[in-house]
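Consider the following assembly input.
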Amino acid sequence: MAIQESKVKTAVDGRKGERADHIYRVAAEIMCQKGYEATSMKDIADAVGLTKAGIYHYIVGKEDLLFQIMSFAMDMVDENVVTPARKIADPEQRLRVIIEGHARRILEVGGAVTVILEEMAALTPAHRKAIRARKRRYFDLVRETIGELQTQGKLRDVDPTVAAFNLFGMINWISRWYRPDGKLTPDQIMRDFLQIALNAVLRNA
Amino acid sequence: MAIQESKVKTAVDGRKGERADHIYRVAAEIMCQKGYEATSMKDIADAVGLTKAGIYHYIVGKEDLLFQIMSFAMDMVDENVVTPARKIADPEQRLRVIIEGHARRILEVGGAVTVILEEMAALTPAHRKAIRARKRRYFDLVRETIGELQTQGKLRDVDPTVAAFNLFGMINWISRWYRPDGKLTPDQIMRDFLQIALNAVLRNA
DNA sequence: GTCTATAAACGGATAGAC
DNA sequence: GTCTATCCGTTTATAGAC
């Protein structure tokens, strides 16, 4: 199914199929470890078993590769966090779903989801503007959710914007300290994490 | 602080005086904006009004420059946050001082304090080990403080390590969203921030 | 599709004049 | 102390053979 899907995508949106997807995924992993600027095309070529020139058959250039990776990460967040969350009417329950969904993307995906947090400065102005707009829509959802909680009297006596930033800080910082081979499992972390994050902003929780 | 002390330090530890300090400060600001790898020696030279060759009179090399900047940032945190905090016996009051002191360094200093959060990967193994050790001692102070709060029954039912990481996440993330020319002043931010951060980990606060 | 070869620019760093 | 000139490695990207 993935194969046929990619053939459709080739015709539809100019992608080059699953080999290209493989390059994106490997590149995301390397850029996540070494940083975008410190990652050379040769690093990526070696990791996928092609020459430097060879991978240019699949990509437009280094910066565009980064943009594709970030777009993919945003697709994933939209699909797995934002869209499900928008279907939930109760703001407290919606916030819970957002926090857990977002944190689990970082714990279980890594790569692309981390790159989008760290490498905005490497994008061209047009690409940066596009990614920023998508991030902004997500941020607004969270801030509005916190705003609804304030209306219900469930928020602490704080600025909803500051509360939203702190929530993102806790969640996104996970990518800096979580190690898949460490003592703490994703499930253990999520249990404590949700308690801490919800109490940070909610009166009772 | 480094500015006033620089004459003393020149005699004491081999630094080159206030012009070197100026280079460090300017370099920290540029690296903070563009990232270490994307910052060229020419960027720094232009900003201080020297040629690329000229600044090598004051620095050992690019990586060492980064190490000096990070060492300076750690000196600042040690002097203004860690040392004062260690003198406080009550863990809840000590945690308050750490959170406020650390957050204010980010809000009011920027540059060097931000670089140390983002560019560890660019250091040589020996330098990275040295900075990591200093960061680790600071982290241990925070975790032990949280441990004392747990003993006193003031901590929520969570792992002190996860609590410490989340605290650092909220604090360090400030560098990602705070803008000196924005609507929120450091004092406004600190008021809400302390309430959110303390309630994140403490039972009553 | 994938390669070898190479272009063209830029990087950090140094030599040596002044 | 600061400059000009330059070395030399590395970078992204392309041309063109197979």
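The radius of gyration of chain A is 19 Å. Ask yourself how this observation constrains the way the partners meet.
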